[in-house]
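Teaching note: in complex prediction, the entire set of molecules is handled at once rather than each chain in isolation. The prompt given to students was simply: 'Predict the structure of this complex.' The entities are:
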Amino acid sequence: MKRIALLLLAALLVSLYFYGNVAVAEEDEEHGGDIIYTKPLKAVIFSHKAHTEDIGLECDWCHEETFEMEALYMQENTDFTMESLCNENYCGTCHNGDISFSTTTQCARCHIGVKGYNELVRQGKIEPEEGDVIQVEGGGH
Amino acid sequence: MKLMNINLEKLIPESLDSVSPMERRSFLKMGLVITGVFAGGRIFSVVSNVNEAFASSTDFVEKYPYSPHYSMVIRQGLCIDCEQCLQACKETNSVPDYGYRTRILTKTVSDAIGRQREFIPILCNHCNDAPCTRACPTKATYKNEVNGVVMMNSKKCIGCKMCILACPYEARYYNAERRAIDKCNFCYDTRISKGEKLTACSYVCPTGARIFGDISDPENVVYSMVHQIEKQVWVLRPESGTKPNVFYMKATRSSPWDLRKQAGAR
Amino acid sequence: MIKKIKSETAERWGYMGIQSLIDSGNYFYVFAVIGVVALAGFAVGLHGTFTGYHHVYGVTRQVPWGVLISAYIFCVVTSTGLCLVSSIGHVFGYEPYMPIAKRAVFLSIVFMLGGFTIIFFDVENPFRMPIYNALSPNFTSNMWWMGTLYTLYLLALIVEYFFLLDQNHSMSRLAGLLGVIFGVAAHSNLGAVFGMLHGREFWYGPYMPIYFIVSAMMSGGAAIIFFSCLAWKIDRTVLTRRMERGIKAVCQLTILLIAIILFFTFWKIISGIVAPEKYIAIKAFISGPYAPHFWIAEVGLGLIVPFVLLIRSEGINTNLMFAATGFMMVGIFFMRYDLVLAGQIVPVFHAMHVEEYNSLLHYMPSFHEIAVVVAGLSFSAALFMLGEKVLNAHKFQKHAIVPPGAFICPGCGGIHYKKEGESEEDALRRHHRMRKVDREDEHA
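The expected output is the structure of the full assembly:
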């Protein structure tokens, strides 16, 4: 009896595992995935997963008026800076210390830095830009 | 100094809040001026002695052995690893690709709430008691007598690498082009001696994480940042007793955004 | 006339001429092979010099000292040890140690030269070294003292060896005393080079200088036995009764010193385990990636195995002693290597818990580094082999005819003249400036 129960449990776990994987893959298609901003500064991460799946924000919250459904669209704007973020534009509409943490704190939460950027390139998650020098950390004589 | 260390050992490591203003005040009463607290939990770097502690503010200045006494404050929370500073340093001081004078370390605290990452810039600490200058056999590396910058006289360097080993901050590397050890000199030859006010790294820093100045001048921003009793200021590796001149503090800012940058920065 | 003086000197010095090496058959071929290996090593080293060491060496900014420094330390430790152990005899007058002096001092110089060769390829600008050591000395720098004291030490050794060859024993004794003084100063200072780095927990403290001196004596004892046994294997006539006695005495001393170093090592570990900063490095050696180095090479080959073998040899069984000290030479090399690395593998920012430095640092000797070490060591080996043949195996001059009123000294093997009414014993003491023992007092 016990054995059968165990087997069933194992089968359940395995199927759940695969189901989970498939689900994630599908979700990736559904929202915009991770977006890495490199201008004006390297590098800022925006994660759809963190904002939709984890926190449960609706697409409309952002895509109604704040953001285009096109990656790196707003990066071309000249006012895509911390100053305008602090004035509650772009990400700052929520990251104002009210709805979510303020842009004047926790800098390294959005800013993954050159290290984070290089790491993502190394993992093959993003294409390196022209002129990027990806150095292996810890080297140097 | 000795007495000091014994007391400090008792503090709990890694807790920045482990030194209350009360404690700090009692250290001041002991005749020791505190310039910081280390993340390892120890108050360090005593720059004055008993006689000078309660003297007037002008004496206070005198406890710094150099004038101008160049120092840097790293506002650790503000570094976003954009690495503009590394780039500027490389270009200004012709640092080769295999070396660096300054670097940014990453600290991840996986069980922290909210932000879990922190970037920590490191560079030569221009120690008052520099182990490297003691170790150098030929005085190729030395303290500038006026401003305390630890400098290199490249042509005297025999390349024994003793100073690399002696340095507790890993601030030195061998530069084959110069045929000498190379290190941060607060851009003394490339900028400061030419009349610039800031080092290349603090000039380009977009967030004001690197504040450069003269700690012996009460008017100076570095002085006023380090000399606040309610702020935690610390140095790296205080247990080495080197009396560093690069200070670290936590900082977040409040709007408006522009105030963040150091005056004179790009 | 000049020829005659030349041949007299040659005889006194035991100089056999280069021809004796060339004529030695297989021995010469072995010598030639070792010589070629040394030259090849130099060539590789020079290649490194011109391409730039940072391209070809395994050392990095985080681990700036690697196998070259280890090998250098191995050489100078052995040199100092040879000098110190042999000084017991010909400087401080303990007779059984006297016959080992000539070979020991010769080897002492040889190892010093080997060490300097290796350091030549480690220092980036070796030619600036003598210039700025003199023009811009930093008296607070252990490194400065190291260069200066070892140079003086080498000079003293050379003078000492000259007088040993010349059989001028009072002068050789004086120079030997200087050699001992400079040797101890230089060597304990080498310990201080490490011991005074207060940024490096593992090394910091007075332990290093003390350890260096004691372990130097141990290496010296091992080297004397090893090379004497080797010399005996090359030429059976080397092992005279006097030499046998000398080796036995050195063997006993070496056993004692191994015991001392064993307990040094033991307490270094125990005290390191309780100190949080040192613990990481210690752990890497007792159970981490360096455990094979430590347990097999350093403790096993370097200490325990030779300890047992040397005791079993009773200072008589040359095969056992040869094996024991051979193991020791290997073990001691690893001892130096471990010592140099142990202070560096823990990153300086380890306590900050940053990602870049959350593991031990890694160092692997590169081909060029190994080649330079091989060059230095085989250079020393070649010089040793040269010395065995060309300098008549460091034997003292054979005296066919002892002049009237003279005798062959049982200590140094030279010819001493007795004063009138003097016994051989008294003449020996006078000649070697040993204090006279008042026998009557003794009996009373």
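Point out the following to students. The first strand of chain C starts at residue 406 and ends at 408. The domain at 14-394 of chain C is CATH 1.20.1630.10 (Formate dehydrogenase/DMSO reductase fold).
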